[in-house]
Amino acid sequence: MTYEEARQYIEEAGRSGMMPGLVRMLALLGQLGNPQDKLQFIHIAGTNGKGSVAAYISSILAVSGQLVGRFVSPVVFQYEECIQYEDLGGVHFISRDLLAQVVSETAAAVDRIKREGGEVPTVFEIETAMALLAFVYWHCSIVVLEAGLGGREDATNVVSHVLASVITPVALDHQMVLGGTIPEIAAAKAGIIRKNGVAVTSQRDPAALTVIREEAGRQGASLHEVGKSEITVRKADLEGSVFTYRGESYRTFMAGLYQAENAALAVETCRHLPAPFTPAVEELILGVRMAAWRGRFERICTRPLIILDGAHNPTGAEALRSTAETLLAGRRLHGVMGVLKDKDYETMVEILVPIFEDVAVITPPGERGLDKEVLAGVWRRKGCRKVSLADTVMAGLKKAMDACGHEDAILIFGSLSFFKDLDWK
Length: 425
Hints:
38% of the residues lie in helices and 19% in strands. The strands form three sheets. An eight-stranded mixed β-sheet has the order 4-3-2-5-1-6-7-8, with helices on both faces. Strand 14, helix 12 and strand 15 form a beta-alpha-beta unit. Helix 2 packs across helix 4. The mean pLDDT is 92.
């Protein structure tokens, strides 16, 4: 199978969507010789912050000498981001040749399942299996694995050698699948906690935290909580943050007020890993400093100031507004937004409308993209008087730039799905 054929196979498989449950995944991995049993994992679930926390953990472990596999979903700028590893030389995406190889092996396993009358795996399950095969080929010493949707019934929850289960803050999202309340969603996320294992969380919501504590208790797992009072932000600007956590000073070059908490959660996780994975203090500090994650309050241009942020739900919108009001104080803000139709975009707009001078709206690619006319109507109803429609994110950026003054800023947000279409030079 060539690279082009592999990409075509994944595109066609993507029409199946996502479905919870572990039966299909277990069957697929069984056909592939159970590659997950040859690896050790840090498993991450949560609503917001998973990608950033994973980036910090991966960076910390890499500078401590580990070969760290990482499965990323969704990707931001190119498909090969989804399967990567990090070492002392930095982050490396899967090659086209290896991608074609693992797709070919996985496709053959899917064909065997079909011939035996089994249920066909979803595209996320196929991609997870591909990633596990690649990690075995690379001889990864440890894998940082993000759950795709939920936790308990997520395809990634088939892994057995889990060194730590990490739960980032829980918020309302994917209610049709995970449940309509914070405790229900927290219960789904907490399903990654392993019997007699290690669990780490930075959860703030009392209802969610209660559920996580109860699940850890049922599993006999040791739960380590990152308390907000233990984090002191000394400085925060567009260059990142300086903060202290449990007596140590850290510097992150990932901007956003929430990054100190994400980094602290990563630090706490790494502190509780068994030997030989436990980093030294200086490796924790260096790993946090060197971590990078695209599309999270990321500055892509200085003049004009253009920032990408993957905020795609109300909690993310709150974080974006708080960060913008602090780090961009005194600037007029121009927005470019696209959002998926299954998100709570009404609440997102209500949160963000006070900070924007004007907004250009687009329809993200794919069947899940919310029509720009619908989104424009929401912005107008919520009080934004300057709303324009654009056919592409680049056209939306052009409209924002036309309105942008010398000291203004442009924020592009709402979904990671269209960032790859940016052609900014």
